[in-house]
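Exercise 3.2. Students should predict the tertiary structure of the chain below and write it as structure tokens, then compare their answer with the key that follows.

Predict this chain's 3D structure.
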Amino acid sequence: MDEPRIRAATAADVPAIAEIADEAYRHYIARIGKLPRPMLDDYAARVVEGVVWVLEEGAAIAGIIVLLPMTNYLLLDNIAISPARQGLGLGQRLFAFAEAEAVQRGCSEIRLYTHQTMVENQRLYASIGYEETGRGTEAGYDRVFMCKQLRR
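Answer key:
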């Protein structure tokens, strides 16, 4: 299989992006009690905004990342790997890409949030250097906010 590569998403990628988001987040519905927010995102609009990247393996899209530029930081709005491709280090590639993008844009930190019930994600983010900065309800979801300081 070809070496995975990360590239800006195109309109042709939207069905695969939506499918990965659906597959990666579907199992959280029962835990949260409703559809996780990434399952509701308008990926066609996000692609037009230029904030979505895909991780490709050959001709197949195996992962996605949505990065929103904010005033002083980069917001990692969504990261998802196809469940069939999880555990192979692809998520690490996307996290490294996000950090490189943040530094390239002159940001000294990258932020993200996750649902309070997604404790495994909180542990993962903490294990790669993210620190919890708060908790609260936003857009109808109980969220944990996290931040990672970056070296420029």
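Discussion points: The chain has a mean pLDDT of 94. The longest helix spans residues 90-104.
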